[in-house]
């Protein structure tokens, strides 16, 4: 029904944005001016811009900076992206005890350039952006307060043991487009990430699913790797996973567990551009299924639709039919004509692309 579809859309928006809104609510929470120390300190580094209407922000982006200037104590939001910065020393942050947000994207920062303690001393930091730098491993130590860590498009191939052990508040970890391989992970690599909800490791060089993921993971993105299979009972460890993306891998029928993706928590499953020859087993709760550009030649109607999907004309088929509302099968090898029972099944779905 339309109401059910609208309910699903609202749920998707909620889950997708929850790691953002949780943190934004805290970052933008209005505090007493006493906390900002505005009346004590309104100095502004000459290399940067300090908007009078936004006294807790410091804009130093796109200025060709090679060093981080001294950060005034009132600053909550620090923008240093698109510069030539190579190091993160402790000294510029000596007085910056209120920092919640640091954007250092598109610089030249290396692990050797990060002074130990420079980041961990920032006890109120929630967001750390270090995308498009020269990092070869996940930086450590990091502040316990951190909620989002963005490390996309670096050269990360190592995760030192214990890196995440104290990051119990982290909800989002973005490691996409790095150089991670299977031996970068130990069984306890993700230990400590008790509240992690979104994990993005797309565009790496993984051949296997990463081990022992945090139990609260809801969004797992592993597109554009070389993953060939999924171990039996793999999803038992992540019972809340709702969004699973495995597009552009090397998954085959033989590489899937016997139960396939029969996991009640999964709402959106993306398996485009793999090597599947049949539709894998799915759960009745699944709503979106992407199977385009595989090697599927025929579709078992009982996998997509319930056994008793043919209904009297006067009944509302959407009330009794499959929960699956979106299905992509284009780019496969399905030959015409499509059997009548399968066409009847497809008519029960809200959107089918074949």
Automatic annotation (TrEMBL):
The keyword Repressor does not apply. The keyword Disulfide bond applies. Keywords: Disulfide bond, Extracellular matrix, Glycoprotein, Leucine-rich repeat, Proteoglycan, Repeat, Secreted, Signal. Its main location: secreted. Residues 43-77 form the LRRNT domain. GO terms for cellular component: extracellular space. It comes from the Eukaryota. It holds the Pfam family LRR_6. Residues 1-21 form the signal peptide. GO terms for biological process: cornea development in camera-type eye. PANTHER family: AGAP008170-PA, KERATOCAN. This is Keratocan. It comes from Otolemur garnettii.
């Amino acid at each position: 029904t339309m109401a059910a579809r609208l309910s699903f859309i609202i749920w998707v928006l909620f889950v997708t944005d929850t790691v953002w809104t949780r943190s934004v609510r805290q970052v933008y929470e209005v505090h007493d001016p006493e906390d900002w120390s505005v009346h004590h300190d309104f100095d502004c580094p000459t290399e940067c811009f300090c908007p009078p209407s936004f006294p807790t922000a410091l804009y130093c982006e796109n200025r060709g900076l090679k060093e981080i200037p001294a950060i005034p104590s009132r600053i909550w939001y620090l923008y240093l992206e698109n510069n030539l910065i190579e190091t993160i020393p402790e000294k510029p942050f000596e007085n910056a005890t209120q920092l919640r947000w640091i954007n250092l994207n598109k610089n030249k920062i290396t692990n050797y350039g990060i002074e130990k303690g420079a980041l961990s001393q920032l006890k109120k930091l929630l967001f750390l952006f270090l995308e498009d730098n020269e990092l070869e491993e996940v930086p450590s130590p990091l502040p316990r307060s951190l909620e989002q860590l963005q490390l996309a498009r670096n050269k990360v191939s190592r995760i030192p043991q214990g890196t995440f052990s104290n990051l119990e508040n982290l909800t989002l970890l973005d490691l996409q487009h790095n150089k991670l391989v299977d031996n970068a992970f130990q069984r306890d690599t993700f230990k400590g990430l008790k509240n992690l909800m979104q994990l993005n490791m797309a565009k790496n060089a993984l051949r296997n699913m990463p081990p022992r993921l945090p139990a609260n993971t809801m969004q797992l993105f592993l597109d554009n790797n070389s993953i060939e299979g999924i171990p039996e009972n793999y999803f038992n460890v992540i019972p809340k996973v709702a969004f699973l993306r495995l597009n552009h891998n090397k998954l085959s029928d033989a590489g899937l567990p016997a139960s396939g993706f029969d996991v009640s928590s999964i709402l959106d499953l993306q398996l485009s551009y793999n090597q599947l020859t049949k539709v894998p087993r799915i759960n009745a709760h699944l709503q979106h299924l992407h199977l385009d550009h595989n090697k599927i030649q025929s579709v078992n109607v009982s996998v997509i639709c319930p056994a008793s999907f043919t209904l009297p004309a006067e009944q509302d088929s959407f009330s009794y039919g499959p929960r699956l509302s979106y299905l992509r099968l284009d780019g496969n090898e399905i030959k015409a004509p499509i059997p009548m029972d399968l066409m009847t099944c497809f008519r029960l779905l809200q959107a089918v692309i074949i």
